[in-house]
Every structure is written in C-alpha cells, then in structure tokens.
Amino acid sequence: MSEKTKLDTLVEILEEAPDEVFIQPHNVPDPDAIAASLGLYGLLISRGLSKTKIVYDLEIEKSNSLKMLELFNVPMIRAADAHTLGTEDWAVLVDAQKGGSNITDLPTDEVAVIDHHEYRGDQGYRFEDIRPEIGSCSAIIAEYYFENNEKMDRDTATALLYGIFMDTDKLTRGANSLDIDMFYKLYNLADISKIAELQGNEISKQDLGLYAEAFRSVETYDELGFLRLNSSNDSLLGAAGDIVVSVSGVNIVVAYAIRDIGIKLSIRSTRPGLKANDLARHLVEGCGKAGGHDHMAGGFIPAENFIKGRSIDTFLRHRALSFYEAQ
Ligand SMILES: [Mn+2]
After folding, report:
1. Least confident piece of the model among 82-91, 135-144, 226-235, 298-307
2. Is 21 helix (H, G, I), strand (E, B) or coil?
C-alpha cells in the first residue's frame, strides 16, 4: 500500500460528517474558485461522499464565470437557496479561508480548507492544505487527481485549466512550477474550444459601459495607477485593475469602488519588491481588512470607519503614494 495522500486524509475526516458536506468557495466566485470547487466535488463524489454540495454566497457577476457554470454544468447553489444547510453540516473552504473579508461565515462547521492565499493562522480546521506559493487553487485540486490516479472528465479538466489560466494571468502572474506542470497535464485532457468560448465571454455589454466610465477616471503618478469604478461589482473591479496594470509605465494599481456599506479595494502590482498585499494592508490600516497575494490583493473599509466628508480619492492616493515612496 502506498502512503496516505492528502485526499485520503480529507475523505477519512469527511466520512465522519454527521450530515451534508458543503464545498464553499469565496463569495462572488471567480473561475479559479468555481473550477476548484467543481474539481473537489468530483473527487468527493467519486470517493463515496454522496451528500456533498457546493454552496456560495453573493451573486456571480462576471460573464465568464457564469458561462463556466453553464458550459460545465457546475452544481453550485446560493447559500440563500441551500435550505438543508445547518449547524450539523460540515464545510470545506476552497480558494478562501475562515475570517477572510471575501467569505461569509455560514452556519456550517468549517472542518477543512484548501487554499492558495496567505495563511490566516490556525482556525481550528481538521484538515488544512494552504499553499500561498501556488498561483491557483485549481492546480492544487488538479494535483489531487493525478496524485491519486483519479479519473478526470473533460469538463473538469477544462475548468481547472481555465482556473489556472485566469488566476496566473496566463502563467505570467505568481505562477509556480505546480501551476505549469498541472497546466501541461490538463491541456491534454481539456477541450480548448471551450476555453476559447470562455475567453470570448469575459466582458458583458453592460460591463463595457462600466469599464468605459472607470477608465476615464484613471489617474497615474509615476508607476501608480488609480481607478474608481462606479459599480458594486467585485469581480469587475479586479478585472479593470488588470487592464490598467497592463498600461505601459503603470506597474501598481489601486482600483476602488464606493458602496453604501463601505469601500472595496483591489490592488495589483507587477513591480518587483512591491507586494500588493502589503500595499493593501497599508491602505486599510486602522480602518479595514485586507489580504491577498504578492501580485493581487483586496481590501475593504467599512463605511462606519470612514470619516464623513473626507475624500476617499484623496485618502487612497495619499496612503498609496506614501507607501510607494517609502519603498
Ligand atoms: Mn484563486
């Protein structure tokens, strides 16, 4: 008998679940979160955990994410529609960790986590596979398949390939050798025509108007770019930031959206030595929460922590520039 794999350990724990097992990706799931959830779902079902479901909170906003659900028949349900979800159920968090600003704490007991974001410290999980050095959660789930010789269907392979593709910005952002190895292995199993179809669905007509307005707001100071989006759409904010950081001369982007509940931030950095997560933390210091990767990060400042009448545009520019100049 070969050694026990991570998947073996996870399955052994989940077999003790008193009722259902919910796979929960972060809120407003992006392609990596959707692919990783679908991949893990397939693994748990094939290991006999038939009471497994995928649940997520908040609406999926980006058109490529929605297209994924349709193309790959992803069985994901909104938390509000998960009528059987309760305190007796267990959850496996995917592409997120307990206590993060991007995940709702549902009534379930979060017993396990598989993630590639910065380690948020021991949260009392019974199973933990957190690898911040990996560019995508999809690569971690793909490795579970290959390591365990589990059969992978074409849709799952295609979804995981797309998840790696998106989270590593086509293998150019924070990609680790695991992302590249898995990309290569998945490529042979995937349906590339569906990847092309997803690429053709990255922007909706409605997004286009929001982008146009946001891009007019862009201001740059040296390598720093600022963008303000007048939409409550989380994933659009990151995607708009990706476009601004691709502008020549701009290497760091602070994209933000102002909502009733607070200010949502999305940070990008392609500048060596300037970490997006450090900048995000600096921006929200004393007034909000932030986290993420070296190249992409996010944050949130609750409305009640922000001094009324103060200009958020000035506040963010001031903090970002002081951080930038101190580097
Ligand atoms: Mn991810």
Report:
1. 226-235
2. strand
Please write the tens of the pLDDT for every residue from 5-34.
Answer: 999 999 999 999 999 999 999 998 999 999
Centre of ligand 1 to C-alpha 136, Å, is 5
CA 151 / ligand 1 centre spacing (Å) = 23
CA distance 85 to 65: 24
Ligand 1 centroid to Cα of residue 95, in Å, is 5
Do 179 and 73 share a domain, yes or no? yes
Q: 160 with 236, same domain?
A: no
Ligand 1 center to 117 CA (angstroms)? 7
Find out whether 278 and 291 touch, Cβ atoms under 8 Å.
Answer: no
Domain-embedded: residue 74: yes
Q: What is the pTM of this model?
A: 0.85
172 and 276 share a domain? no
Whether residue 162 contacts residue 68, with contact meaning beta carbons closer than 8 Å, is answered with yes
Name beta bridge partners: 220.
225
Question: Ligand 1 centre from 308 Cα, in Å?
Answer: 34
Q: Inform me whether the pLDDT recorded for 246 exceeds 60.
A: yes
Of 194, 258, 201, which is closest to residue 226 (Cα–Cα)? 258
- Domain-located, residue 229: yes
Enumerate the β-bridge partners of residue 290. Answer: 299
Question: Domain residues for 280?
Answer: 205-325
